[in-house]
Specification:
It is built from eleven helices and eight strands. It is α/β, with parallel strands linked by helices. The longest helix has 13 residues.
Amino acid sequence: MYLPAGHFVPYRSSRLHYYSWGTGPRILFAFHGYGESAASFDFIGDALDPEFTLIAIDLPFHGYTEWKEGLSFSPEQLYEVMQKIAPTTSPWRLFGYSMGGRIALQLLENHPDSFDHLILLAPDGLKVNFLYWIATRTSAGNRLFRWTMRRPGWLFFVLRFCNALHLVNPSIYKFAVHYIDDRPVRQDLYIRWTTMRQFRPDLGAVAAIIRRHQIPVSLVYGRYDRIIRWETAEKFRHRGIDDHCQLIILDTGHQLLRPQFLSDLLPLLSG
């Protein structure tokens, strides 16, 4: 994979890293999934319509971004960074994968006049994750989360017990074990989840914005995704945005941001 030269944008005491592909006047901001980076969009940037410029930002504690503002990153801080990178060129398009989908939804809610298209791949944020809410939005839950990431023995026991009794989907079990079986991975999980806790879109408000501004929305899911199910998209579309929202289901799992799906994604991004 050949990447363009990366760039840094200063923000307070930090530096956020991003890649940019193309020189077209229409800006497409892209946000990666958990544990990934802006480099994930390289195969798209190389093939995008020349009318567009694709800008992908490394989120805090991902990629090359140097975040020194503590374990907190707000939608307004991200929007300020976007304005620094692409001043006076909105409306922009938003493209988000997994965790990046939740970020895109929050940006649209906060700044509806700044965006004219929304493309989401297996987006987090269309369903409230109760455990995530407890772990990041309550002080007691966050303390328990931090303690558990340091001493995960009890959680391993519960997961294995539930798996033995077939009370948890095998894919979910493997996914959970992956993120708690390694100490550095657990530490990253606590830091990243806590830092991104302010991105919590109000789906009713987002749907109202889509209707009012007639914003086209494309939702792409994997048919066999056991992490983020495509059924959540159907519920979102039934919030009165059917006329503005298309749902595409591909024969794959959660890993949608891959070159083999380029022919499916390009028409959505540049259409």
